[in-house]
Amino acid sequence: MRHLRWPLLLALLLAAAVPLALGGRALPAELGRFPWPLFLGLLGMILVSWNLNAARIRLLLAGTGRRLGQRRALAVLMATEFAICATPGGAGGPVTQVALLRREGVPGARAAAVYAVDQLMDLVFFLNALLALAVYAVVRAAVPHPGWELALPAGLVAGGLLALALLLRHDRAVIRGTGRLLRRLGLRRLWGPAAARHLLRFRRAVRATLRLHPLRLLAVYLLCTAHWLVRYTVLYIVLRGLGVQVDWAYVFLAQMLALSAGQASLMPGGAGGTEVAAGALLGAVMPLKTAATAILIWRLVTYHWYLVAGGAVFAWTGGRALWARVSGRRPKSEHTIGPAEPTRT
Fold first, then answer.
1. Cβ count within 10 A of residue 169
2. Phi, psi of 268 (to 5 degrees)
3. Between 299 and which of 70, 187, 303, 309 could a Cys-Cys bridge form, CB atoms 3.0 to 4.6 Å apart?
4. Cα dihedral 250/256/259/260 (nearest 10)
5. DSSP per residue over 26-44, as a string?
6. SS3 state of residue 89
7. What is the pTM of this model?
8. Which residues pair with 268 in a beta bridge?
9. Distance (Å, whole) CA 99 – CA 103
10. Which of 94, 35, 42 lies closest to 306 in space, CA to CA?
11. What separation in angstroms does the CA of 299 have from each of 231, 232, 296?
12. Secondary structure of residue 268 in the 3-state scheme
């Protein structure tokens, strides 16, 4: 647990220090201009986006014969979001969601498949969004440097889709290649028949999930679209609250690039890298002090609030045993996060 505590503390310091450094002495005055009653509305938007994501999980599970109530799905989603924000590169997210879904009686491979398909929907949405932004940038010239600003995230999204497609289509080659790589690295004990079987079960579960009724998958995609539109509108509303007139499409793209830069830093929640990248992109179209203020408020809503509210749910649903799994240690009492009785809905 300790080896994750210090990166998280550093991330919290960076998330606050970068906007403070960018805004300088003008930051308090800029914060005073923001209509703080609007802050409650922004938190309400995050609650809406969480419920949209929870509905996605419910739809995917219901299609496989598993029923989960909205409150239970919301708890799973909030705990997962906390784990994503609290661990380097978001590595704790899938571990948390799979562990909590297993408590609801969902097999491990099926739970992992639901998470993977959920991420696949995100990638498809961002690819479509980038195509729409490319057309919009040409027509309205809303993006200052559309070449690299659109090509970079498009390459990342396309790479993610290609990797998942290769895993599903050439899974046996992936299994053999992974085994050989780990043996060469001296990690032979991490790979064996059991690990290969788990990967095969996961692949079968993903394929079964993707074979759900097209209308169900379309509904999941529409919920995915609504979730990201709500979440990526938060920064736009913050800027409007500060009196800044800026194109929504540019704000959307700036968030994509900033969050990608943050993930590349491997800091919990992308702290530091996200704020620096957002400051560079927003500072190009508005005063830097205003950009710094907007970034600080935006991250309070979309990062710190995830840690506070999601952390409370995380502690309620799993506590120390679940954190032990997220931190890579075996929990002392396995039964606290093991399979539980199915929930009635």
1. 10
2. -55, 125
3. 303
4. -130
5. GHHHHHHHS-THHHHHHHH
6. coil
7. 0.82
8. 88
9. 7
10. 42
11. 12, 12, 5
12. strand
